Fold this protein.
Amino acid sequence: MEKFEDIKNKFIVDEAKYPKEKLTSLMNVLFNFVRVSKDGQVVVVKQVPTRKVLPLILSARFIANKVENEIDEWMTRDELMEYSYLKKEVFTARFNELLREGMGDKKDEKIKAKNILLVERFLKQLEEKK
């Protein structure tokens, strides 16, 4: 039987100590769909369904922040809309859907992916449908 500390460390996820192997794996999945510039701009390089584009962009910025602290994981709604290239009506529907599903964490006028576990789950599902 595993020791308490070993199980606790597997069960409680500390984003600051997230294993580099996991981050590398997540970046490999993201690399198939997006790129992130040093100043945080996200470019979608492979078309994905409109329901997936906003979580994809948030995931990319979230992971980029974990590997380069200078890249802010928070972005404005306008930035998200610009990177998504969605029409305003479609963007609004997808944005509200994103918040309802709990993928986004909204504070004032900014949004980010809620946590690493949701990002990991989303990317796993995205990769399976690739």
